[in-house]
Amino acid sequence: QVQLVESGGGLVQAGGSLRLSCAASGGTLSWLTINWHRQAPGKEREFVATITRIGNTVYADSVKGRFTISRDNAKNTVYLQMNSLKAEDTALYYCNFAGGSWGQGTQVTVSS
Question: Which residues, at least 6 apart from 41, have a Cβ–Cβ distance to it below 8 Å?
Answer without folding.
Answer: none
